[in-house]
Amino acid sequence: MAKAKKSTNNLLNAVLYIAIGVLFCIFKASVLNWLMTVVGIFFIVEGILSIINKDVTSGVVAIVIGVVLILGGWLFIQVVLIVFGILVVIKGILDLIEAIHVKNIALIVVDAITIVIGVLLIISHWVLLDWFFIVLGVVFIVNGVLALFGKKLSFR
Question: So what's the pLDDT on residue 42?
């Protein structure tokens, strides 16, 4: 009986992985908008419940956080991506200088790619996020397919 329940659970997990992977591949970075909206709604519901339970201060704070997440979530993500891009460019430049000193061609190429990724994060972060979610979606799909056959994807 326990083995049948575990098998059904594994099948459900595999299908869920595949479904999430397909959603990531189709909707790409807009998944973040959904996530911010869902989290914002949870905060608003939590705030309403707190106000009902006579905790007005934390209820109002939760509602404000929820509204800010829904209305301004993309602004926060955009600022974080730009700051992260700047940090990646700085790290790439510092590593590139060191790679040039040791004359390691492989490191020079990797560091140049790091700088390009950092610049893309600054200039066209939404395109980079789209590609990130496509790759993440493919990983989820592969993991779901492997789970259907009783295998797990491991990066060890």
Answer: 94
Return the percentage of the chain with pLDDT > 70, whole number.
92
Contact partners, residue 97, CB within 8 Å, separation at least 6:
none
The dihedrals phi and psi of 80, each to the nearest 5 degrees, come to -60, -40
Name residue 102's amino acid.
Answer: V
Of 42, 31, 30, 29, nearest to 69 by C-alpha is: 42
Q: Please say whether the beta carbons of 125 and 82 come within 8 A.
A: yes
What does the alpha-carbon distance between residue 36 and residue 67 come to, in Å, rounded to a whole number?
Answer: 10
What distances in angstroms separate CA 53 from CA 42, 61, 62, 118, 152, one per listed residue? 16, 14, 13, 47, 45
Cα–Cα nearest to 29, from 145, 133, 143, 109 = 133
pLDDT given for residue 80 in this prediction: 81
CA distance 108 to 55: 57
